[in-house]
Amino acid sequence: MATVKPLTKAQVVSQLAEKLSMTKKNAGAVLDALADLACKETKKKGSFVLPGFGKLVKVQRKARTGRNPATGEAIKIKAKTVVKFRVAKACKDAIL
Predict the structure, then answer these.
(1) Lesser CB count within 10 Å: N end or C end of the chain?
(2) What is the tens place of the pLDDT at every residue in 66-81?
(3) What is the pLDDT of residues 2-18, one digit of tens each?
(4) Alpha-carbon distance 43 to 45, whole Å?
(5) 3 occurs within a structural domain
(6) Contact between residue 76 and residue 63 where contact means Cβ atoms under 8 Å apart
(7) Do the domain assignments include residue 56?
(8) What is the count of structural domains for the chain?
């Protein structure tokens, strides 16, 4: 099976510009503004929804005990905050 490389930012910008009949500069600005908005809203409110695509969610992980894979020794893993992306049902159905 051949490996397929994901689109680069330049390729995404190019396709957006072509699809929306705008310049690549403007399409890049839209993509950057969307990414910036998603980061700010997730940080401030704990989640950001992009309708039809998915949701960024800030989640608290509890402290837990893990294992060092090299030695098998038990180690303590601290509690931390992580960001998860939950794919919307409509997007998942379209892909699968």
Answers:
(1) N
(2) 999 999 999 999 999 9
(3) 688 999 999 999 999 99
(4) 6
(5) no
(6) yes
(7) yes
(8) 2
Beta bridge partners, 8, equal none
Same domain as 50, residue 78: yes
Assess contact for 13 and 3: CB atoms under 8 A. no
- Say whether both 50 and 40 belong to one domain: no
Q: Is residue 69 part of a domain?
A: yes
Whether 1 is covered by a domain: the verdict is: no
Q: Which residues 6+ apart lie within 8 Å of 77 measured at CB? A: 63, 64, 65, 66
Integer Rg of the chain from CA: 19
- Helix residue spans in 1-88 (DSSP H): 9-20, 24-45
Burial of 91 (0-12, 13-18, 19+ CB in 10 A): middle
Q: Is the pTM of this model over 0.70?
A: yes
**Domain span at residue 77?**
46-96
Q: Which helix (DSSP H) or strand (DSSP E) does residue 57 occupy? A: strand 54-61
